[in-house]
Design brief:
The chain contains 14 helices and four strands. By secondary structure, the protein is mainly α. The strands form two sheets. A two-stranded parallel ribbon has the order 1-2. The chain has a two-stranded antiparallel sheet with strand order 3-4. The longest helix has 36 residues, at 257-292. Helix 13 (298-323) packs antiparallel against helix 14 (327-337). The chain is 50% helix and 4% strand.
Amino acid sequence: PITFVTDSKYAIEGLTKNLPDWENRGWIDVENSEYLRATAYHLRKRSAQTSFIWVKGHNGHHGNEQADRLANEGANKANEDIIDLSIPDKFNLQGAALSGITQARAYKGIRTKAKIKPRTKTTNNLDITRYAIQTLTGHLEEDAAIWRGCRNKDLPRKIQQFLYKMIHGAYHIGEYWSNIPTYEHRAKCSHCQAEIETFEHIMTECPNNTRTTIWNLASNLWPARYGAWPRITAGTIMGCGNINRTPINGQNEGIPDEQQNNNQKGRSRLLRILISESAHLIWTLRCDRTINGVQHSEQTVTKRWTTIINKRLQTGRITAKVIIRKEAYRNLVTATWADAITTNTNHNKNWAIALEVLVGIIPPRPSTNEAPR
């Protein structure tokens, strides 16, 4: 008989309670399945009894502490150890039982086994995004984290799709038209006739009034005490779902840790909203101008941007009042907009859920080219 002492409930339950189900589903969507399958084989070929005992990790248990030490030594090795994970055909159960498979699970299984060649544009854009995020957060994000950022819950579905397609280079701009006879002219920017139109050009370089107006509005709404408005690039936009603002030096003295954490989340959320909504509006108006020939005045652009941001504000308030009626979410809405709004009363501490209080973003500053009223 042998007894395994471990702090991993996942391993114990996986090799006992969950093993039949995992085998029925063909080990699809099971983390570390290659190691668990090999472990199951070695346990089954034994004729003696096998037992498992769970102990709490990092709790002074001698064997567990020694196991952690060995694990750390292994993780710090220059070259990884070669582990034999082969399983004889007699023990290697193939496929999945029809009773344990669903369409979604089958699709995941196909994706796992299929060798998908990475797209050059996608790889390049992920790298651009990774290093743009690093300039704001100080660390590099993995590909999986960037893709999760595209589905950040602070981003509406249409913007999630916009960022996803942007990273994949799925929009028909620039080089897409260069090799299509009689359509080569579409590769150039319709406003400034730049040689090859790119997302970087559309979002940050084109001198058209729409782009400059929108980014000026966003930077002006960003509270000065939150720090400098970041330099916007295509990578910043594609990675806006991963942006997290660090605490501001000197502004957290005497503030409880929980409130500091909430304020930081609010600043990060406001920045994600401003960048994502502004970029999507620039893209929308660019398409309207390029496809339909519509020219937008500065007043029209300002009104559309203000309406969009106010809508995000009011949607958050309604959600806090009617849908997610939790104090944590109300505090998040308050922390997001508190320094960027104006109300018809003194800042009522419950303005986030007091819908009778008229709340809106601070009105845009008048343009220097606009005559005073």
